[in-house]
Amino acid sequence: MKKLIAANWKMFKTWSEGMQTARELLVATRQDLPADREVLLIPSFTLLKGVGEVFSGVENYYLGAQNFYPEEQGAYTGEISPVQLKDLGCSFALAGHSERRHVLGETDEFVGQKVRFGLEKGLNIILCIGEKIEERKKGQVEEVLHRQLAKGLAGVEKDIEPQRLSIAYEPVWAIGTGEVAGPKEIVHAHTFIRNELAEYFQFYKDIRILYGGSVKPDNASQILGLDNVDGVLVGGASLKAESFSQIVLAE
Ligand code: PEP
User: With the CA atoms of 143, 7, 94 and 107 taken in that order, what torsion angle do they form, in degrees rounded to the nearest 10?
Assistant: First the structure.
């Protein structure tokens, strides 16, 4: 299974900034990209076309969306559909990122609706899950992950091809805070998720489980080497080609 190194640019970058970072990233990583690695760029909607053009035809580089609405088309002002995203060259999309859950109020049920609809329309979905700090303090990590998986994966076919679906474990307290989860915490959560996936999917061993939360050039190798860590989802450190390329190439 190839490790997936994903860049979530969130609501950052103008057109020219995005194009510059994308070009620098390609130059810095393309030649030395390890054979067991894939790179996914997840910029704002406004940058999808341009970033897609920079990486067009380059093997092992993919384009993804941060969000979408679970309808094909219609009167949903301000929203964007999986069909429109695919038309722009997106093959992946996030669902349930913690900022969408906790800042923008998305429920577990709505996230599940998006996972099902996005898959049905041909996007590869990365379902993001993770506990808040108060939930960890109360010993509720497994309970939260179990619930978010149950609601997020409801109705997904048991024999789904494993590359169509990934899970990103992103403890909310580690996102954008500089506070990375320790190896024990990551391995515990990822092993729990793998065991849960066994309840849902025939090919559960091949579904990628990514870690996200303050991944940086100096901790990427260690995290990528942990059991059941099949890639990373990177926010802050993905904004500069210099730091993200070090993560992409981390040995
Ligand atoms: C994220 O946005 O998914 C993320 C993990 O952000 P950061 O790397 O900045 O913690």
Answer: 50
